[in-house]
Amino acid sequence: MSDDTKMNGGCLCGAVRYESTGDPFAVNHCHCHSCRRHTGAAVVTLAGFKTHQVTFSGDARKVYESSPGVSRAFCGKCGTPLTWEGDGGDLGPIIEFHISTFDNPDELVPTSHAFDPERISWFDVADSLPRYEGFAHDSPLLRHGPARLDPTN
Ligand SMILES: [Zn+2]
Ligand SMILES: [Zn+2]
């Protein structure tokens, strides 16, 4: 991908659509309670962009403030969970999209797992990606690969 790569996505009913321009700064699996509760999924995968890389069209997304400064958006018609939105620290304001809302999520390959300690105990995947205690960019690295295959665990 490159600076002018455009990717499109939207909710299940098509009322909310979005377009991203350029590469995401990260694509990560997240095991945290809030992402799992927001989606009902065992794990979520998010592709993160600086807010200025993103434009929305169609119906305005509904926004729920899940904690101070952190919003999670969804479609007001069909309920599809769409985003995590908040302060990205050095990145400035960011929007992360739930990966399966993209029209072509195959192009967005995850590079790590965030909040591994909050992972549902029966769930893991057989990749060798790094697992972090919290956010990938600022928390301790716990291990590579799934817990069950780690002889030290
Ligand atoms: Zn919808
Ligand atoms: Zn999360």
Compact description:
The chain is mostly beta strands and 153 residues long. The chain has 1 helix and 12 strands; from the N terminus they run E-E-E-H-E-E-E-E-E-E-E-E-E.
Can you give keywords for this protein?
globular; 1 helix; three-stranded antiparallel beta sheet; glutathione-dependent formaldehyde- activating enzyme (gfa); 153 residues; 5% helix; binds zinc ion; mainly beta; single chain
Describe it for me?
The chain is built from one helix and twelve strands, in the order βββαβββββββββ. Strand 6 and strand 7 form a beta hairpin. The chain starts with 5 loop residues before the first strand and ends in a 9-residue tail after the last strand. The chain has one domain (6-149): Alpha-Beta Complex (glutathione-dependent formaldehyde- activating enzyme (gfa)). The strands form three sheets. Strands 6-7-8-9-4-3-10 form a seven-stranded mixed sheet. It is mainly beta and 153 residues long. The structure holds zinc ion (2 copies). One zinc ion binds at residues 11-13, 15-16, 75, 77-78, 80.
Outline the fold blueprint:
Blueprint (H helix, E strand, L loop, with lengths): L5 E5 L5 E6 L4 E5 L2 H7 L4 E7 L3 E5 L3 E6 L2 E5 L6 E7 L5 E6 L13 E3 L15 E3 L8 E4 L9
Parallel strand pairs: 3-10
Antiparallel strand pairs: 1-2, 2-5, 3-4, 4-9, 6-7, 7-8, 8-9, 11-12
Bound molecules: zinc ion (2 copies).
